[in-house]
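quick one, 152 residues, struct below
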Amino acid sequence: MDIQPSKKINPRPKIRLKLTKGVQSNLQLLDLKGSLLTESSCTVHIQEISQDGLTYVSDLRFPVREPYMVRLQFEIAGIPLTVCGRVSWRHRLESLYEHGIRFYPVNKIQVKLLQLMNEEVLRRNPHQSQVHKLYQGLKQNSQTKTGGNPWN
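---
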């Protein structure tokens, strides 16, 4: 898994990391209260991640803005993560579908994701100290907004 800052032109001021080889993730469907809708799951490939959401590719076409959530289980920087969110957009890519997920609840995972993304960037590209400084600033800003680190 190589990580590079995304080169997409994006009006959002958030940092998004492009996972050049993708990260395999297990996806399950949940109701809005967080209960499983079905025991079945599928494998998707995460392409980009930020503190607010992620982009994944799948051969399945998930509905947008419907009353359900997805739960994704994957690893970043060797740390297993489980995140939940709602499908906010979808694009067709030849025989696949690209989906955008917005995390829910956002504040509970932002700080941990920023920390893990920072660690992975430093591990893969130790010479990119400017990216490291940017993440440190975002991490401190997120901790201020959320009243501290909810993961401690």
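The chain is about 25% helix and 40% strand.
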